[in-house]
TrEMBL record:
PANTHER family in alphabetical order: SEC14 RELATED PROTEIN, SEC14-LIKE PROTEIN 1
Gene that encodes it: Sec14l1_1
Role: May play a role in innate immunity by inhibiting the antiviral RIG-I signaling pathway. In this pathway, functions as a negative regulator of RIGI, the cytoplasmic sensor of viral nucleic acids. Prevents the interaction of RIGI with MAVS/IPS1, an important step in signal propagation. May also regulate the SLC18A3 and SLC5A7 cholinergic transporters.
GO BP, one annotated term: innate immune response
InterPro entries: CRAL-TRIO_dom, CRAL-TRIO_dom_sf, CRAL/TRIO_N_dom, CRAL/TRIO_N_dom_sf, GOLD_dom, GOLD_dom_sf, PRELI/MSF1_dom, SEC14/CRAL-TRIO_domain
Name of the protein in question: SEC14-like protein 1
Species whose genome carries this gene: Bucco capensis (collared puffbird)
Record's GO cellular component terms: cytosol; Golgi apparatus
Domain named CRAL-TRIO: residues: 321-497
Subunit record text: Interacts with RIGI (via tandem CARD domain); the interaction is direct. Interacts (via GOLD domain) with SLC18A3; the interaction is direct. Interacts with SLC5A7 (via GOLD domain); the interaction is direct.
GO molecular function, one term: RIG-I binding
Length: 717
């Protein structure tokens, strides 16, 4: 069974009196040159009241539907007949039109209702509204084709409706007809009624429109006093949407899109007793689901519930971001782009995401991002007023200068992903454009982690510039006026966005403190822990099939000092047998400890070193990546770091002896995470990983990089 398709129009206001509109409307019969498919119409029934106030005409209309010949052949018809019944009430100044199909009425049910009425606030204006439903029961297996054809024909007719009236109004004007007198009760009828028939006297009929107009005027005065003068009230009855308002504040919508908005809005008014989102916001959810009203309703309702739970409506007025955020969150609003969209600038490369997560936890960061989004909605509304056209999204400029492996710290990335998810779900279609500037070589790694969480619609709006490309053609100047390009991008405009910088460790809070803050960030972990002993390194093997992949790692040295190595071998190392592990069994509380490199293997013959060894001290966090050049097996190794003897005397130095005594039982501990990212996930931007010389590590305390293998590891102290 097919779905019933429904249509509901906005209110269209003609700034002409009802009688003139009727004179124009009647000219479209029996045929109309502007509707070629409207081949003929015959009057099959007619009724006029004695006083001429009521006039009902029933017509049989012959339509030549623009459908494939094959379909017409299968259906066995050339024309489709509709019955249209027009009821004109000149006294009340209304015309009601009912139409339904006569052809195929057992297979397809089409009902349409239109009305022309007097505008409630101005008796010299006329309102037009229409609604329709289409129900296809069956059509020789061509149900969906018929539905498409019907919808297409219908929407093109809706668009034409206004043109037709305006066309005939113009024709009337050319003939010198600019006003048509209102209906008045005929005098003869009055005498007759007072003498021969003891009927209800007709005279009060004159007073009816009179009182109606008086009330109408009073209403208008009330309206004018109550609404603020700055907002133009379209003055539509019963809070209905007006076509001109839609165009001015919401944009150019197709008839079906308008219909979806009106119906979803009506449904909200009937079902949601609380705060109903603004029309622009309802429209965003419809856009996010390609105007599928059921899907849009679902995500909108989830979002409304979420807003209530988290008191999001009050976030701008009631929540004060902690000082750490105000000092170290390098983002802020900065004028607007060339399209009038509010512009948000984020200096992500200068921002210590790890420090912010450690000092604040995920929850406070999320809350801050929500307050930014709420402010964005407010600015869009503001700009819509200022620029005189609908502006429903903002532009975000992200500067990645300074981005490095520290930004790939997993809990930070996880926090970022969760924030993106919440924003995607509750602020759909708010990002008009995302300009990513000065993308360094680690960017593809970050992009790969993040992009699966981003809606396809949103992803189309990303523009990514490496290095200084943004200064060239097709760059920043295409989107942002020269006068407001921020100083840190070589522009003249002072940008108030905080500089960011490293969050001092003294502001870090323990997992427990954050836990008490009701933040479940540190409970689930993707890290594994390993123990490293003197003479027993911990090794992890990564098999690479596709030569140009990227191995990424991220580890913390919890205890002791270690040396980190990465090797390549063509042969698969044999994992040790479980039982031979003895005391260092994987299940032992000491964490796992696995050796993979066979004792008989020789470096340079059986396996080779692909990175220079990296010495990592206790308490350091290390992130790095390696672009693989060959398939085969890569072995990541964490090895106990033994003290070097003093170079001059070959005797151990006192400091070293003392230090080595402090390392209890020659055991180190490491928490690590490693992942392989396939080159296909980079969407062609592998090259940017290889351009390894960039002003790369402003945030890092130390960077080691070996250009021959395009790898970099980075330590943050």
């Amino acid at each position: 069974a097919a779905m019933v398709q429904k249509y509901q129009s906005p209110v269209r206001v003609y700034k002409h009196p009802f009688e003139l509109i009727m004179a124009a409307y009647e000219r479209r019969f029996p045929t109309c040159p502007l509707i070629p498919m409207f081949v003929a119409s015959d009057i099959v029934n007619e009724y006029k009241s004695e006083d001429g106030a009521i006039h009902v005409i029933e017509r049989r209309c012959k339509l030549d539907i623009d459908a494939p010949r094959l379909l017409k052949k299968i259906a066995g018809v050339d024309y489709v007949y509709f019955v249209q019944k027009n009821s004109l009430n000149r006294r009340e100044r209304t015309l009601h039109i009912e139409a339904y199909n006569e052809t195929f009425s057992n297979r397809v049910i089409i009902n349409e209702h239109c009305s022309y009425t007097v505008h409630p606030d101005n008796e010299d204006w006329t309102c037009f509204e229409q609604s329709a439903s289409l129900d296809i029961k069956s059509f020789f297996g061509f149900e969906s084709t018929v539905e498409k054809i019907a919808m297409k024909q219908y929407t093109s007719n809706i668009k034409k409706g206004k043109e037709i009236i305006e066309y005939y109004l113009k024709q009337l004007e050319e003939e010198g007809i600019t006003s048509v007198p209102r209906w008045t009760p005929p005098v003869a009828c009055k005498l007759e009624s007072s003498t021969s028939h003891p009927r209800r006297p007709v005279s009060p009929a004159i007073t009816i429109p009179d009182t109606a107009t008086k009330e109408g005027l009073n209403n208008k005065e009330i309206l004018n006093t109550s609404s603020s003068p700055s907002e133009p009230t379209a003055g539509t009855p019963d809070d209905k949407l007006d076509a001109d308002y839609i165009k001015r504040y919401l944009g150019d919508l197709t008839p079906m899109q308008e219909s979806c908005l009106i119906r979803l809005r009506q449904w909200l008014q009937e079902t949601h007793k609380g705060k109903i989102p603004k029309d622009e916001h309802i429209l965003r959810f419809l856009r996010a689901r390609d105007f599928n009203i059921d899907k849009a309703r679902e995500i909108l309702c989830q979002s409304l519930t979420w807003r209530k739970q988290h008191q999001v409506d009050y976030i701008l007025d009631t929540w004060n971001p902690p000082q750490v955020l105000q000092d170290y969150y390098a983002g802020g609003w900065h004028h607007h782009d060339k399209d009038g969209r509010p512009l948000y600038v984020l200096r992500l490369g200068q921002m210590d995401t790890k420090g912010l997560v450690r000092a604040l936890g995920e929850e406070a960061l999320l809350r801050y991002v929500l307050s930014i989004n709420e402010e964005g909605l407010r600015r869009c509304e503001e700009n819509t007023k200022v620029f005189g056209r609908p502006i429903s999204s903002w532009t975000c400029l992200v500067d990645l200068e300074g981005l490095n492996m520290r930004h790939l710290w997993r809990p930070g990335v996880k926090a970022l992903l969760r924030i993106i998810e919440v924003v995607e779900a509750n602020y759909p279609e708010t990002l008009g454009r995302l300009l990513i500037l000065r993308a360094p070589r680690v960017f593809p790694v970050l992009w790969t982690l993040v992009s699966p969480f981003i809606d396809d619609n949103t992803r189309k709006k990303f523009l990514i510039y490496a290095g200084n490309d943004y200064q060239g053609p097709g760059g920043l100047l295409d989107y942002i006026d020269k006068e407001i390009i921020p100083d840190f991008l070589g522009g003249e405009c002072m940008c108030e966005v905080p500089e960011g910088g490293l969050v001092p460790k003294s502001l870090y809070r323990t997992a427990e403190e954050l836990e008490n803050d009701d933040i479940k960030l540190w409970t689930e972990t993707i890290y594994q822990s390993a123990s490293v002993f003197k003479g027993a390194p911990h090794e992890v093997v990564v098999q690479i099939v596709d030569a140009s992949s990227v191995i990424t790692w991220d580890f913390d040295v919890c205890k002791g000092d270690i040396v980190f190595n990465i090797f390549h071998s063509k042969r698969a190392p044999q994992p040790p047998k479980k039982d031979s592990l003895g005391a260092h069994s994987i299940t032992s509380p000491g964490g796992n400890n696995v050796q993979l490199i066979d004792k008989v293997w020789q470096l340079g013959r059986d396996y080779s070193m692909v990175e220079s060894p990296l010495i990592c001290k206790e308490g350091e966090s290390v992130q790095g990546s390696h672009v693989t050049r060959w398939p085969g097996f890569y072995i990541l190794q964490w090895k106990f770091h033994s003290m070097p003897a003093c170079a001059t005397t070959n005797l151990p130095r006192v400091d070293d002896v003392l230090a080595s005594l402090q390392v209890s039982s020659h055991k180190c501990k490491v928490m690590y995470y490693t992942e392989v990212i396939g080159s296909e996930d980079f969407r062609g931007s592998m090259t940017s990983l290889e351009s390894s010389h960039s002003g790369f590590s402003q945030l890092s305390a130390a960077t080691t990089s070996s250009s021959q293998s395009h790898s970099s590891s980075m330590i943050s102290r």
